[in-house]
Amino acid sequence: MTESGTAIEVAGLVKAFGRTRALDGLDLSVDVGEVHGFLGPNGAGKSTTIRILLGLLRSDGGTARLLGGDPWRDAAQLHRRLAYVPGDVALWPNLTGGEVIDLLGRLRGGLNARRRAELLERFELDPTKKGRAYSKGNRQKVALVAALASDVELLILDEPTSGLDPLMEEAFRECITAERSSGRTVLLSSHILSEVEALCDRVSIIRDGRTVESGSLPELRHLTRTSIDAELSRPADGIGALPGVHGFTEEGGRVRFQVDSDRLDAVLAALAGAGVRSLTSQPPTLEELFLRHYARAEQ
Amino acid sequence: MTGTWQLVRLALRRDRVMLPAWIAIFAISAASSASTAAGLYPSLPSRIEAAQASNNTPALVALYGLVYDPSSIGALAVLKLTGLGAALVGILAITVVVRHTRAEEETGRLELLGATVLGRYAGLTAALLLAVAGNAVIGVSTALGMTGAGMPVAGSVAFGAGWAGVGLAFGTVAAATAQLATGARAASGFAMATLGAAYLLRAAGDASSAHWLSWLSPVGWAQQLHPYAHERWWVAALFPAFVLVTATAAYALAGRRDLGAGLLPDRPGPAHASRALSGPYGLAWRLQRASFLGWAASFAVLGGVLGGVVSSADRLLDSEQAREAINRLGGGQPDLINAFLAADLSIAGVVAAAFGVQATLRLRAEETGQRAEPVLATATGRLRWTASHLVVALAGTAALMMVAGVAAGLSLGAAQHDLSRFGGVLAAAAVQLPAAWVLVGVALLAFGLVPRASVAGWVALVIVMVVGEFGTLLGLSQWVLDISPYAHLPRLPGGAVSVPPLALLLAIAAALLAAGLTAFRRRDLTT
Asked: In terms of CB atoms within 10 Å, which end of chain B has fewer, N or C?
């Protein structure tokens, strides 16, 4: 464990490939013992950040600290304390899955044999097949078993469930929940929002190589909007102009709009003043927040 | 078959450099060999003497075949090329066909294309069309090259047809084995083993009284065409017949299997890694073991044949011109056996460097295949990971030269009933290593400094090969010849050993390796 209580501390990270700036001042802070969601549209710089944290790429600017060390200079020592699952797992075609799991474990400095057996059973993975015979999902399972069976402080997972079926996804969630309760730190890059909502204590959303939101899930929910659909007995004078109201439409006494969560109180009071006959409200979802950020990336 | 034409165009686009380069190398080496022969054997008696000496040496007959017309300069010129050259064309055809069939399936790229409008047999058909076209071009350009070098037209056509026929025959064999095996390496392996068996069949048939054995082998057919020795054209008809049967088999096999699957099931392997597979060195050895053992077997055969041939060198090449040619190729001494050994072990030294370059560039293959990443994300530092493959490259070249030296020394000793030359042969094999390691160093520097141009390791090897083999024959000036590290080695056995050039080569190799390692430690991983 590091003294500061921070497992990963990244500030102002910059990485350019030729003329494209893959990272443009990215910040990321992961506390010891938390599961941290790392989100962003394709090409936002998630994998680049992870590769810099693993010392596979060298940053062009900013600072990065990993488990209290320099990810580039102290790479080999730091890697004893972490396990990594890449997004696209490539295996040696003529090595069996079991051999790869043992090899990666030994290269990391040890493997828990009992855990290895448990995980193989849980993920229903046949360890005697050759690397070329595995499907994408099974290749991913090989890397997951190798990572989860290692006794390490930090797990770095780059879209680890992208090839798994729903049943296996569920098994993965149970594993991560168990990891969290045993005090391990997890950096989880993901596209699956339900997974992030179910597993993560805090999330960072990045876009175009910058961090656009970061915080705990309740904090982020606070940033989202509630959808309101109401029938009013009197004209809804001025509600559309209230601060925090978006996308206001009115049609024969029926109003529809979204409202920022921190303005909800004032808006509800105004609605009550206009005589509410019926009201449906949709609770804020992270999905909406992500879509807002993702959509902006595409413009 | 829908989409075949697009696949052919895609394949041509991917091979637009490799294929023409190989075809040119084949045509040029055939033509240059033909023009060299004319200088080697200027008179009729010298030809007859050389041809008879060769036909009476079983080791040479097994390796190259027979000279069917001792008076024909063409027959003598293509002795080494008809069988051995054809086998090399076969290797190229196997490589190309597997590259565009099973390798595409293994990487999953064919699946991407297979989901588009693409017939079930399109991939196979495209690869076969490519093999037909490529081998036709090799045949035609070789025939033209030989004619241009002053050889008779009819013999040149027969010779080119033999090469094209063998190439196409083993291209279709590869098309069939690609349906059987699930891995590209295994598919090439089966096809190469078939080629090896075919070569051994004709070796046994030519060197023994059971001549019919040679007729079982497509490589034998290329020789039975008798290029430059009263051509027997009807033999050429055997090739299309063989190709038709093998291609039909390939289509039948393709129709019986799923995409990505093979007819031979992948056998399950161990569920746990053995103790040997626990560190980067264990992994590197495991990944390169099969390739190294294959190379070692070829070096053992090569060394054994070399020792057997050399023992009759006095009879074989006892003409003023031949002596001069051997000396120019790197012998440079009065004892003809020693001159022959020095020249051939020098060639073996360059070939061993090819293994070294291949083993070194495995680093790049692991990097682009994204298999370096998971290893480097463990406690394995970049230095150890690089060193693991480098040790295979450096120690592997050394082991190969020792294998060749021991085999050559023993077979020479057996032929002469005298092992007194054994130590000298071994020393001559060992002395090649500093030069081979310089080439390994060039490959590593390219990998570390400009990973996308790692092929520079191969380019350096080809330059050294061309300069060393053809430099003096082409009349290149001394400073060009001195580019090759092999030019600075002592001419062993027999010559004087001077330490400074060897020490300098070792220092250069060490400097290149250190620079390559340093550069790799500083750069990003790329794909």
From this structure: C
Asked if B74 contacts B225 with a C-beta cutoff of 8 angstroms, the reply is no
Which residue type occupies B404? A
Put simply, whether B378 touches A (Cβ < 8 Å) is yes
Q: Give the alpha-carbon dihedral of B497, B499, B504, B507, to 10 degrees.
A: 120
- Cα separation, B16 vs B451, in Å, equals 21
By C-alpha distance, the chain B residue nearest A127 is B271
**B106 neighbourhood in chain A, CB within 8 Å:** 93, 132
Contacts of A167 (CB under 8 A, 6+ apart): none
Residue A153 within any structural domain of the chain: yes
CA distance A90 to chain B (A): 6
Mutate to test the interface with B, among A73, A106, A150 (most CBs of B within 10 A): A106
Beta-carbon count within 10 A of B236 CB: 19
- Could you tell me if A179 and A234 lie in one domain? no
Q: Do B380 and A76 touch (CB under 8 A)?
A: yes
| Averages of pLDDT over each 10 residues, chain B, 527 residues | 81 86 87 81 85 80 87 88 90 91 78 66 90 95 92 94 96 92 82 87 84 92 94 95 95 80 76 91 93 89 82 63 60 70 86 92 92 94 96 97 95 89 94 97 96 89 80 74 90 85 96 97 91
In which residue are the tokens 């680093």 written?
B363
For residue range A250-276, what is the model confidence (pLDDT) as tens digits? 888 888 888 887 788 888 888 888 888
- My answer on whether A160 and A273 are in the same domain is no
Contact (CB<8Å) B183/A132: yes
Using CA coordinates, name the residue in chain A closest to B522. Answer: A58
A57 and A190 part of one domain: yes
| A140 and A241, same domain (yes or no) | no
Do A101 and A28 sit in the same domain of this protein? yes
- Same domain? A264 vs A133: no
Whether A296 is covered by a domain: the verdict is: no
CA distance B462 to B478: 18
Nearest C-alpha in A relative to B384: A76
Residues 444..503 of B with a Cβ closer than 8 Å to A: which?
A: none
CATH number, domain containing residue A45: 3.40.50.300
> Are A236 and A108 in the same domain?
no
- In order of A139, B177, B458, the CA distances from B262 in angstroms are 19, 9, 33
Query: Do residue A150 and residue A249 come from a single domain?
Result: no
Joined together, the tokens standing for residue B475 give: 């009349």
A95 and B268 within 8 Å at the Cβ level: the answer is no
Contact assignment for A96 to B268 by CB distance below 8 Å: yes
Q: What is the domain extent for residue A119?
A: 6-217
Whole-prediction pTM value?
Answer: 0.80
> Chain A window 106-145: which residues touch B at a Cβ cutoff of 8 Å?
106-109, 126-130, 132-133, 143
**Whether the Cβ atoms of residue B403 and residue B348 lie closer than 8 Å to each other:** no
Outline where B312-421 has alpha helix (H): 313-316, 320-328, 336-368, 372-376, 382-416
Q: Decide: residue A121, CB within 10 A, 0-12 exposed, 13-18 middle, 19+ buried.
A: exposed
Q: Searching chain B, which residue's CA lies closest to the CA of residue A93?
A: B183
Residues of B in contact with A57 (CB under 8 A): 524-525
ipTM of the complex: 0.83
Q: From A125, which residue of chain B is nearest by alpha-carbon distance?
A: B271
Q: Are B183 and A94 a contacting pair at CB < 8 A?
A: yes
* CB–CB contact A106 B279 (8 Å): yes
Whether residues A55 and B371 touch (CB distance < 8 A) is answered with no
Contact indicator for A168, A137 with CB cutoff of 8 Å: yes
Single out the residue in A170, A198, A217 at which a domain terminates. Answer: A217
